User: Fold these one by one.
Assistant:
Number 1:
Amino acid sequence: MTKETQVSITVIRRLPKYYRYLSELLQKGINRISSQELSKLTGFTASQIRQDLNNFGGFGQQGYGYNVEELHKELGKILGLNKEYKAVVAGAGNLGNAIANYGGFKDAGFDIIGVFSRYYKDLPFDMEGLEVRDMSELEDFIKDNNVDIGIITTSKDNAQKVADIYIKSGIKGIWNFAPVDLVVPEDIVLENVRLSDSLYTLSYFLKGLGK
Amino acid sequence: MTKETQVSITVIRRLPKYYRYLSELLQKGINRISSQELSKLTGFTASQIRQDLNNFGGFGQQGYGYNVEELHKELGKILGLNKEYKAVVAGAGNLGNAIANYGGFKDAGFDIIGVFSRYYKDLPFDMEGLEVRDMSELEDFIKDNNVDIGIITTSKDNAQKVADIYIKSGIKGIWNFAPVDLVVPEDIVLENVRLSDSLYTLSYFLKGLGK
């Protein structure tokens, strides 16, 4: 799998989409699919799909296409979805609540085992089945439980402070929802969700419609 | 602005990031920036930045760089952020609540004027200052108020039904958070937020760290 290290981020960001479509095909009991059919589903060209998947090994067979179950399983491994991750959420507002209670993440191997808030006056409180702890306990909790992923759903102003605690406590991946560019060391995996960027893209295309 | 129609989606998705950085520079009182300095901030190469911005006209001047205020204003116009949009949210769970109450959207011209839920037994209820209405009123509300954008924060199972109501009522843009591929006519702008795709990308890079 040495080839994998050279794969561009653009290709990698397409993999979850392939994985999602393959999951749906599996649910429908479809066992085999050509790159042309995958193209119709995903909106990527057939040659793009073949090229993307060839980065990770030869999955398809000429004249047969792809075995859906096998490709789904392999893509899952490539994405690391055959592993179990422990995650914590910092920021127990609406967004933190939404993320902590979304069942889909647990099904995919991401187990949110703690939620933390700095509003200690009202803590601990119960948030739809999850106990919310005081932010001062975050560092010890991460170390005691070998947490892999730190999720940030705090305000913009508190996000870097939380990131610093995550880094200090040995977390390897940060999933950041706060609208701020965090400063993290190179060996920390940082993935940002930029809701405004998505909304502005929508706005760009609406403008094209004459709005 | 006929040139604009040929611009690729990849370039367009970078514009909100430029806009975000320019907003921050403006706040810091910085009036002028070179493509090299913008490169350090954004992580894109200087030539990429010049190429991206040239798609929309000649903003920079050789030897001077970019005027931050002017470029910010022009990018805002290109993204349609100089306009006011009316939006509604369908789905009044945690995520709907988070979206409806996020002040940053209103500041950027996106005004969420209604929240709808199908859990009519408990409706209308007050959700942090927003009255939540019954889903059966959605269609009339959109028509009466000339709503531009429909946001979907329902479950996967209800998302297409809501999209159909949006389309029937004359909404032009859909911002979808439900993990499902909606079927919409070509003249509807559909922007999806795929939280799982982002999490899987994080997982991919964590795996590279030996997790």
Number 2:
Amino acid sequence: MSEPDTKRPRSSADAPYELIYWPTLPGRGEFVRLLFEEAGVPYTDTAQELDPGAAASKVIDLVSPESGADIVGPSNPPVLAPPALRHGDLVISQTPNILLYLAPKLGLGPRLGDSDGDDNIAALHLNQIVLTLNDGLVAEMHDTHHPTAVSLTYEQQKPEAKKRTRHYLDERLPKFLGYAQRVINAKTSGEGPWLYGGSLTYADLFLFQCVDGCLFAFPKTMAKLRESGEYDAVFKLYDAVKERPNIKKYLASDRRQAYGQGIYRHYPELEEE
Amino acid sequence: MSEPDTKRPRSSADAPYELIYWPTLPGRGEFVRLLFEEAGVPYTDTAQELDPGAAASKVIDLVSPESGADIVGPSNPPVLAPPALRHGDLVISQTPNILLYLAPKLGLGPRLGDSDGDDNIAALHLNQIVLTLNDGLVAEMHDTHHPTAVSLTYEQQKPEAKKRTRHYLDERLPKFLGYAQRVINAKTSGEGPWLYGGSLTYADLFLFQCVDGCLFAFPKTMAKLRESGEYDAVFKLYDAVKERPNIKKYLASDRRQAYGQGIYRHYPELEEE
């Protein structure tokens, strides 16, 4: 591939990490925050550094066709939706993509080595696991309360939400938790409670946050699924992440935001039979 | 990260590429096929090599909790859904992940270099573009005809499909085509009609297939959007890919399957006001 005309961005090792995300909810930004928190690496976070109005404006300006290009600069393609990460001159978006970039830098995933090398295969396997969890436990979870349109409120699509949620809780949630269980039980998971390679990676932090969100949104269903014993490895991993010293401190801090109008919402009526 | 107990898979340069995907529709497998076809690199394809029943059985066995582990072998984590790619001992899934692996091998994307290097940034930018197109023009497109449950037929969720499609065509489709237009018009796209870096990459093949699918599914809406002139760069890219000699040959061949019961479906009633 030929080089683009513009100078490629370089992320300096000394540059600060800046997370740009909506305020007042954990949302997709949380999957990024957990890496910094586990690694004990400083980062700025629009949701923490600015008041909610200013943080929201910053996100809106970033994704706006008018102002977005100036904000990302000439060496990055436009960003359609948050979260975004700024690191030096680099601005990237899409949660699994941000994690792919950060994980090796924070010791939470293999380096992206030569494309024929061993490390690359581990990185691709981890990316595969995270993309699958993201499909089922983030994107599909979001659509339980927004099955018709993101431009409508939940209240404007309640009958459709009720139908979609019933199928989600009966079919999809067990399917994706069962997938996570299979990954943990596979030979590739190695020793310990983790998904892959015998030590904690960003995929484990990702699954932790998915399970935590599901426990908040659908507590009765999750209690039944836990009691079934079929997902023991998943809940064991969840508990193990929760007890990591840095994660424990983070969850008790005011940096950990309460669930609100994000992906994981608790509408008790959606869980009723 | 420590090494897993099991031997890591190695993909041999001499090993054949094997695509495992549902027969009788282009589906998500098409995003993989287009790379091989453009590059002129041989591959096997369950949808082509086997009769439909045998091809479907092969996919079902791969994703089954009972037989899947044996099929992927001890050095790969389980696969939840097709497409999957086998290359030597390696088996990977998730469309954007398969493309990330294949693109540098087929000359359709930068090598995944050192994580601080320039090439990695280009790979991450391309991955970001593909993940965004995948969200809006594949996953959300699929849900226009399946807004309630994948376990139900379209006919069982027609009223919900009608509502979701209206919002999709009015709000989401223009949003994502507008995003593609902005990417092509950004400085990072370089010379020529392409999305990134001044030459054809796998992201361009991805966008081509999205637009082709949308043209099939919603011809009236796409005609209006084309006529608006707001997405000229997108349609120019679409036309440019379609005229690539290898792609042109492929589209005229019987390897290119007709649209059917996949992501892109043409239900005329969904497009009516």
